[in-house]
Amino acid sequence: MTQPGTAIQQDTLITLVADGVSFQVDVSSGTPAVVYWGSDLGATRGEDLATMTAEGVPQSNIDAPLVPGIWRENARGFLGRPAILGHRHGQDWSQLFTVTSLESSPSSLVVESVDAAAGLRVSVSFRMQPAGVVLISQTVTNLGAESFDLAELTTWLPLPDHAVETMDFTGRWLKERQPQRRPIQSGTWTREVREGRTSHDYTVVQLALTAGAGYQHGSVWSTGLLWSGNTRHLVERLPSGQTSMGAGELLLPGEGILQAGETYEAPTVAATFSSTGLDGMTDRLYRWLRARPEHPTSARPLTLNVWEAVYFDHDLTKLTELVDAASEIGVERFVLDDGWFLGRRNDFVGLGDWVVDSAVWPDGLDPLIDRVTSAGMQFGLWFEGEMVNADSDLYRAHPEWIFQAGGRIPPEGRHQQVLDLGHHGAYEHVLGQVDALLTDHDISYIKWDHNRVLTEAAHLGAAGVRRQTQAIYRLFDELKRRHPGLEIESCASGGGRVDLGMAAHVDRFWTSDCNDALERQSIQRYTQFAIPPELLGSHIGPTHSHTTGRVHSLAFRATTALFGHAGIEWDITEATLEERQALASWSAYYKLKRGLLHSGRVVRVQQPDDTSFVHGVVAHDGSEAIFAYVQLSAAAGSSPARFVVPGLDPDARYRVRLVEPAGTAQSVQAQTPPWLAGIEVSGRALAEIGLRPPILLPENAILIELDRL
Questions:
Q1: Distances (CA, A) of 195 to 192, 210, 268, 450, 460
Q2: Is 449 a catalytic residue?
Q3: Which of 250, 262, 402, 482 could form a disulfide with 230 if both were Cys (CB 3.0 to 4.6 A apart)?
Q4: Residue 42 — very low, low, confident or very high, per pLDDT cuts 50/70/90?
Q5: Verdict on whether the full-model pTM lies above 0.90
């Protein structure tokens, strides 16, 4: 096998290899063409690969073999969707790029090409990460004297013929990232987002799979866009049978107009291949994300957010009681949510005026902050800086700072308008008021919300989503520069802005506004396809769910919340003594096991039916693991199907034991399976035979620990 992280140049073939993944680009035709993306081919010769991948020429077609390359120009005879769409006053819409420079290193390749007639220069860089993820970035520069109207620059990658299925994720508020899987058919499957944020319906990654690929078997190719604005993901199969997948920013009309000499930088795409199923893809993405310098490295603090405890009813006495209860349980971070700023007694007023409301807080926030920090907890505060209420001092002073087009006021969403951060004054207002609060108070964490979609997102009449996305990145980075150690949580009416682009600027995502543990099982499972659990807020909600009306046991809610950046969102002053003791036990368990939960390999199990989930986290050295068996609904049989435990060292023996950090799951059975009393067995037996679960009532779960002997 070729050594990881090497680049081999054989004439015009450049091969990037890392961690068993090979990515090969051929420039012999005068344009960079990805000719292979998959498992490391070892000592395969370049000339052999060229012969094996060369296309024949069908009748009634272009007379030479078709090599569309990364830019898929129609001038080369390509009849699918080009990578670049645009024109210059109706001209230069068809390009033919020729390579002008090529630079390669042990882990990267950069190619520049020019079409002198069209007056355009394009570049593409491929950067192989140690985990086998390829980061692909593209630019286009206008070399002409007149403007070029760029409508699209998409990163396309070819798929092999045996990639026959596609998977992406859909959703809505309170039910984000639900999977949808289908055969790849002729035509183009397109997932577009036009909300101005990545949305509850955002796919995070687009997948292509071999037939029946599962969690531990089959091949998976995926693309994920490092962008938080409007997006487009595509899978295209031509009548010829050629299949490709693409990802790029969805530019609104006019957002891509390039004046002479200007360059458009497309959002980077993370391309991931796994020969070991969906879990293998997830593992590569996690290892890449965790290796970045901006990834949080400190233990993820157990968090209490007060929203579903008090809503807008801010009262120091009540909140102090919550602080005391949180301290007893072992909470490490206390977050004051919406309702603390000027006039904010409901959601009709106050957004934009980021100053403490003296009517509610006559002595300011310091009495609460002091109580929190003296108890050894961090203090966090909620903002929604990209929004403004019409009933606010800010809007009364600067109504022109909202997004609007044609002199119209856009329809309100959540009783608010969108503050256009493309205005220098608007940007400085938000930055200045947030910075002042962070400077004057001991605030180490902010929760940043984004509660509405963008409509008529126009800056001085021109489309402004791209500018807004860049502005929020810049604002977050500036706040962190001014306040070292500050952590930021991205919230967008729950999970409406969870993406790989925002992961470079924040430390936590609020996964969903739904704290119903049953709904959270699927929301968290599929969000974790691409986003590591330590970045995903997962809270124990109230006994009676505020979003669905369901009632769940504390044990079920706690087991569900454990597999993420755990927290609580519940008025725990109303919890019984027994519940508080269970919460304290669960808190201690989370702190004991978060090192594993937030560093290990996530493993998911495909059950014979859809009545249960099985998932866990396994240490990379196989020394320990934690798994959950979740009974979603009544089992199909009188005795539930066995569940296997893959991912362990097959030749080692493991001690398996049931753990109940927050109470006992509810079950109905005359006799429990004997292994629940403890068993020592090989990793191979656990993967091949598995364990028979107890007969749990629906919406219950058990937790098991596995330790290598």
A1: 9, 32, 20, 11, 19
A2: yes
A3: 250
A4: confident
A5: yes
